[in-house]
Amino acid sequence: MMLRNAFRLPTTSRVAAQMRPFATGEYRSTGTMTKIVCTMGPSSDKKAIVNELVQTGLNVARLNFSHAGSDYTYPKHCMDLVRSACDTHCNITVEPGVSVANNTRAVLVDTKGPEIRTGPLQGNAEIAEIADGALVEVTTQDVSSDEPPSPEGPHRLQVDYQSIAKSLEVGRLILLDDGLLALEVQNIDADTNTVSCVALNGGPIKKNKGVNLPDTQLDLPALTDKDKRDLKWACEVGADYVAASFIRTPDNVRSVVAYLERCCAALGPTHDGRHRLRPLVISKIESKEGVDNFDAILEESDGIMVARGDLGVEIPFEDVFAGQKMMVSACNAVGKPVIVATQMLDSMQRNPRPTRAEVTDVGTAVLDGADAVMLSGETAAGKYPLESVLAMRSVVNEADKIKNKDGAIVCPEARISMPSIKAELDSVAESAVRSAKDLNAKVVVCITQDGAAARALARHRPTVPVLAFCTDPQVARRLQLHRSIVPLMFPIPIDPTDRNIRMGPLRAEAIRAAKEFGFVRTGDRVVTVDRTHGKTTDLHEISSNVKISTISSAI
Hints:
Number of helices: 18
Strand order of the largest sheet: 1-2-3-12-13-14-15-16
């Protein structure tokens, strides 16, 4: 039944039915437990389609800067469409004077990173044919004025990596255009910065195509000048996440974090006077060096993206699935979100239904523990962007059901290395998740000012949705990548700096809002988690709390 539903082409009436307000006696869906990242592009840059994507499954909108220039009009347009799309918050009564965003969907800026690419071809040709066994001289010199050779060569191929001769060794491979062309290094001339190779297979090559040097330590900066401009823009407009491309070492991550912090400090508070939070850094693992240094990279990162495209070129393709499982498991253990990306429903760029292998790939990623799965060309440039999200949601929902049957309390031994206050919160979160499962609670309600309580809950892989009520929209959006977390804004005025605020009325208001949203109703059991500041007469600074209650009609 699941496959039949997943492969049904959504009709207008079907989509409308999925978006309709919930009927009396029905629960409103909190969405999938595992999150969906959608890439914005020509197929998804109109108001109507963005509204549909937000309402049918998009949790995080990805802005791809790999081919973007210095004009930020288009990415800002896409970001504004996502932020203005109507969702849950449009259906709740808000106190006078309180401004609540239409939705808490997050925006992820994906940087180009320090890539290596081919330059202009010989004779400024649009395309060059390279025959199997042809000699190819790879160089940093300008070859555009050369006469174009025959496919049998010899060829001269320009690349933009100045350390090409210093980095490579005889016998190593140079892979072109996502590995479609493979060259084996035969000789290296350091004086002319030239590498002589033989083509292991034939095929076409164009300018500005990607170049991969598997099993080679690269002499590349963590951030290019373009990356720095893009990151500064991300801070200016309040992007929630930054996907840092081609992260190879923990030093790379620290460089990105430091640059973002400098940008935010220079910009000062947000337009509404809030402290400006730097975008969270999602490190993209795309090389063998990144896999080898993964534990240290994870420690410095806010999250991880398993970027299987370049990774499948940089390491043997048969090792990709094992690397994916390793990275997902490690992220789960420390409670940091992990995105599995690339070619998840790739055929839906052209076809209205996914292949059975793609369905299995998505489902397996969820069962392995992915916090989010990502659509790239499917929603950016494909013919069926909405259908892709609906298919992804159908598969994720089914996998979530299987995942939630058992649940898993994740690595309590990791608590040993936590600071005291964080360890106490983590222990309370574990108890809350276990209690919600044992008592068949409908939801966990979490009240959080900085997102720490919600992240602690997510680490223990809840089997029910966690409604995370926030006072700052920046904090709410930064929770979107965590599995099971549904970030919401309080519809009443709250001063987050008031240390004397009473938590009892806030808990009641959170449950009242959850009822109004349609997520719970009278008779449901709810687990609440929050933290309170100690009063002057108390002997503690912060108290982490978990409460279990059944909703009465008086709420």
